[in-house]
Design goal:
The protein has 452 residues and is of the alpha/beta class. Helices cover 49% and strands 14% of the residues. Helix 3 links the parallel strand 3 and strand 4. Helix 13 packs across helix 15 and helix 18 crosses helix 19. The longest helix is centred in the N-terminal third of the chain and has 31 residues.
Length: 452
């Protein structure tokens, strides 16, 4: 399909000549002789781009531009006029005009303006698609009252630039909430930079946050841009902010309050514009009272508090989440889709879920890999979800030594070793992999072999 161009001008000669030239270039042409007619066409046919004259009888081009942008903000509008002034151009640009061309019209300039506007529109559509895709990936699934209230708070807080403190137990999805807020904000197309405060060694945290110049300290072979600077015009997410030392907290307060800081080894100030979202599983008010967290940093971050409910307070969402995770893991592990029986769902809904959503996701991954049938029954659920199920017995050494073939004995020991540690870690693949010193993907492959 050829791009459609709506030409709006009260001069028939312009409509005829410009329309003919653009038609020869492969564009589909629609014409209107005044603003009223143009608005009806925009509503009925939604052209790809509008070429709009300023001086027309009735409603002029500027008023028509306002109406088009109010009704169809994604349609680019190029202003054409024979009486152009800087004031008119500035006014049109503020309202939303993509470009401004003066008469007499050069067909080359018009075609360049049209192609630029159409390319810009395609980029906008791609960005909207990617934003929608990212939002779906980071969405908070569930329909319980607790989640509906959480979604309401997110939608209310996201459009502002206010700083946010997200609290909640480990595994509830605090980072997902932060990403959703970022995507819904006006900063959504800029960087979301996360700092996992608990996983960075204190001596490296300053460099991670503020960056450093070459030679700032032993081992600083090149200049490095810090996380705060990388988040400029975007969002800085401080995950588990309570794990920072008091010394780093003090530096962070000074940097964030003034939105200025110096890289390590530099005397030059770097200015930034960042929105800060922080998270913690601890009670920061108690941490402040015990003088483990700075009061000024707490008040700086806690402009809008959002608490993410634990899974046991949103049990109605467990069947929904379990189904989503089973489908996700089936795609990731190239297995057939599985479902939980009604009895298995009821049993899981009665569990307390100390590891919250993360624990449920890990369990669904384990079941996807280990259960070789379409429907997962109660008998397939491991301990502690199925308390009636006996704990995995430890293989007696005599049985292992009775195996005549060395390779078979090694394989059998490996299987029992993995099963034992899976049981110790409540089926959590990530914890089990870490405990036995292997990569998670390697453990998945081993489990598939055990299942086979």
């Amino acid at each position: 399909m050829f791009p459609s161009v709506l030409i709006v001008d009260d001069e028939p000669s312009i409509l005829q000549s410009l329309g003919g030239l653009l038609s020869d270039e492969g564009f589909e042409i629609i014409t209107a002789s005044n603003g009223y007619e143009a608005l009806k066409i925009v509503e009925a046919e939604s052209p790809d781009i509008v070429l709009l004259d300023v001086w027309m009888p009735g409603i002029d081009g500027i008023e028509t531009l306002k109406e088009i942008k109010a009704a169809s903000p994604h349609i680019p509008v190029v202003i054409i006029t024979g009486h152009g002034t800087i004031e008119t151009a500035v006014n049109a640009t503020k309202i939303g005009a993509f470009d401004f061309i003066e008469k007499p019209l050069s067909i080359d300039k018009v075609i360049v303006a049209i192609n630029n506007a159409l390319n810009f529109r395609r980029l906008e559509e791609e960005n909207r698609y990617l934003k929608k895709k990212a939002l779906k990936k980071s969405s908070i699934d569930g329909n319980s009252k607790a989640v509906q209230e959480l979604k309401r708070q997110i939608e209310a807080a996201a459009p502002s630039d206010a700083w946010i403190l997200i609290t909640g137990e480990n595994g509830v999805g605090k980072e997902m909430v932060a990403r959703t807020i970022h995507i819904l904000s006006h900063r959504g197309e800029q960087h979301f930079v996360d700092v996992h405060c608990a996983s960075i060694r204190e001596q490296n945290l300053d460099s991670e946050l503020f960056g450093h110049e070459k030679g700032a300290f032993p081992g600083a072979a090149t200049k490095s841009i810090g996380k705060i600077e990388l988040a400029n015009r975007g969002t800085l997410f401080l995950d588990e902010v309570s794990e920072m030392s008091q010394k780093t907290q003090a530096k962070l307060v000074r940097a964030l309050q003034g939105q200025k800081f110096q890289r390590l080894g530099s005397s030059r100030e770097v200015s930034v514009d960042v929105r800060v979202i922080a998270s913690t599983h601890k009670n920061l008010e108690e941490e402040v009272k015990k003088e483990r967290f700075r009061k000024d940093l707490y008040f700086l971050l806690n402009v809008i508090p959002i608490e993410v409910p634990p899974l046991r307070q949103r049990r109605d969402d467990i069947p929904v989440l379990a189904e989503i995770f089973l489908k996700q893991h089936a795609r990731q592990n190239s297995t057939g889709e599985k479902r939980l029986s009604r009895e298995a769902v009821d049993l899981l809904c009665g569990y307390e879920w100390p590891g919250n959503v993360r624990e449920l996701k890990n369990l669904m991954e384990r079941l996807t890999i280990m259960i070789d049938k379409e429907t997962i029954e109660v008998s397939d659920l491991p301990r502690p979800y199925n308390k009636a199920k006996a704990a995995s017995p430890v293989l007696p050494a005599a049985d292992l030594f009775a195996t005549g073939d060395l390779e078979k004995a090694k394989t059998r020991f490996e299987e029992e070793f993995i099963k034992f540690h899976l049981s110790l870690n409540d089926g959590n693949l990530e914890k089990t992999a870490s405990a036995i010193g292997v990569d998670k993907n390697h453990l998945k492959k081993k489990l598939k072999k055990i299942k086979a």
